[in-house]
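Data deposition worksheet. Section B asks for the primary sequence of the deposited chain exactly as it was used as input, without tags or linkers unless they were present during the calculation. Section C holds the resulting structure in token form. Section D is free text for depositor observations; keep each observation to a single sentence. Incomplete worksheets are returned to the depositor.
Section A, Depositor: J.P.
Section B:
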Amino acid sequence: MSASLERPEAVMLPSNEPVRLIDVDGSRIMDQPGRKEGYFFPDHQALRHGYAEMVKGRRINDQAGALVRQGRMAVYPSSHGQEACQVAAAMCLSEQDWLFPTYRDSVAVMAKGVPPVEVLELLRGSWHGGYNPYDYKVATQATPLATQLLHAVGLAHAAKLKGEDTVVLALCGDGASSEGDFHEALNFAAVFHVPVIFLIQNNGFAISVPLSQQTVAPSLAHKAIGYGMPGERVDGNDLAALLAVLGKFIQRARDGGGPALVEAHTYRMLAHTNADDATRYRSEEEVAQWVPRDPLLRLQHYLSAQGALSEQDEAQFAAEADEVAAAMRAGLNAEVEVDPMDLFRFVYAEPTAQLREQSEFLADELARAAQGQAGQAQGQTGEGMSR
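Section C:
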């Protein structure tokens, strides 16, 4: 059956198996049964850049974990093992495009150009998100599940109304697909035909809840047809496949084709956060099965076999990653000067009467405390002189 005569619902259905272009052993897959046509294979330059970013991302994950243990950050949800998804999300977007990340997507945010220390301010426990979203076209990392999907659709809708050349990529995990906001966002995006791509990083668990207890659908990508948009499955540990699939749908959205849902099959190698004990709900044997599927090793093997990655390249990428880690340590080890008045300063452009009252009350309390400390210090000085 020709493409022009193919049923619309068939076009929306994902491939039989997740799209994969590079196998686990690093060899290139020339043909995959049940895979849709039309996916390009990224060139060596793009893959080398992606590999360097993944090396940096792995180092970022490791360093952030160490900073948590040192008490310099409150919490860190590691994306160790999911670096291919993180890097691909940033690489596929143009400068004017927007990224809407979750709390686990720090590496993606940094790959989009946000300075690492600014990214980690939120997880450090600062009162603000750490960076101005408009400077980088990156929304603040969302901790509540799926809320950022609605925000992403809203921005995409606004961009369409204004005639802007903007595509929005919204990240979420498999757990978000069980939230009402997920369904509202996809339905609105499809009905209003907005340029937004939803990327689900299916790492197998919503904290401790396995995917089997969240859905009985053939895959999360199959949910797309219910909203009238195409869905696709991709190997989330294969950077080449991610670049190909995301690149295709982002270009489709840019050309006016509307939204799409992409499910990336990956795995969270570490615990949900430093506060989680993953051994309570998954076995060491299960985790061990994913070790050979490491996205960095896979791409390293491929590029090395192609003569596109040398030992000197590896050393250079590692050194660049160490520089990022050093900057993170220096930035997070610096003490933060806290101004209590910031609680009111950045809430509204024009403060409400209630906020003004609270602000004045706090300012008075701080002034009284300062006067008391000054008087106490003066008294101690006078006492010392009399002695």
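Section D:
Residues 1-5 have pLDDT under 50 and may be disordered.
Residues 342-386 form one domain.
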